[in-house]
Amino acid sequence: MQQLPLEPADIKMLRRKLIPFFAFAGFSGMIFAFIGFSFLGKSKDPMAFDDIALYVFVGFGLIFFGVVGYMIWAVFADLKRGVKHRISGIVTNKRLNVHHSQTHHSPTGRGNSSKTTRHYYLYIDDEEHSVEFKHYNKAKVGMHIVLDKAPKSKMTLALEITGKEVVDQDAHRSESQTNGKFLQTTFPEVKLTPKDEEVLKSLFKSQQKARYIWLAPTLVMLIAFIANGLYGLLVFFFPVVIIPAYQIYKIIRLYRNYQLSKSYGLKRGVPTIIEDKTTFTSNRSKSAQRLRTTIGVITVESVTFDQLQVGDRLVVFKPKYGKQPLSIMTMDQKEYYLY
Q: Rounded CA gap, 71 and 303, in Å?
């Protein structure tokens, strides 16, 4: 990691970042002031909240504005110090973290609101660094990048992809032609193995379970409407009719495709190339390793994830009737099952 002086463009970016901070702090201050004056105005009311509620309100305000104040101070500190940190190296992994939170607006639990926050990280030579989405999307695993960050505020000032120059144009052109021909290859269908049939059954059950989760609550509501003779309200609450009908259709179709694929007894191979790799984490679901390929995103086991690299050619095996992959095979004939 290098320490370099801030450039004029960096200073301009940091100053521009202060504008939303001050706007947010001012807007939040007005909201807190309005709530505070309304609260204090009712303090003589015997039905008003007690002193504990006031202390909680003041404490929350201090913590909230303390956090906002620290963020503003960190930007000013970076401007005053006039330096930035430059990190360069190979992108060894990427991580998307999704955090779900829920806020209760009343003691009865009504009026709850949920919030989803996404954080993006790049691993440069196996060291994690937070970045914005545009930088996360720009960099791919295996690329050599140069990342400039402010030391205090941790803001990303710039991200440059280096090492993209192709020394041997003929070799690059030949590789592109080889990849193009590979993606147009038609592979013969292969007989389903006992492991394939097991994975196919597991895939069918998981998809069926997901459909039943959507079907059950809406079907209960529909039965309740019909049992109480509220047919007229179904015109306004039409999703209560549409959702169960759609889910039942999808369940029947899943079962049909499963039986057809099993009786057909063959699986088809689809060529693809890995374009990028990323790790997904969340506070509501388990971590997942994902490969972004030319035919879409494929979730794999962590062991498989570590063994595959960007640019690898794969054959994705799918059932004859269905879109979900069963397994992937590398060019050295190693097959990895996905379920």
A: 39
Alpha carbon of 322 to those of 65, 126, 283, 303: distances in Å? 53, 37, 31, 26
The model carries a pTM of 0.75
Task: Using the structure block, give the residue that is written with the tokens 């990895």.
Answer: 336
Closest to 123 in 3D by CA, of 140, 100, 102, 107: 140
Domain boundaries, the chain: 2-162, 190-337
Q: What's the pLDDT tens digit per position in 183-232?
A: 999 999 999 999 999 999 999 999 999 999 989 988 888 888 888 877 77
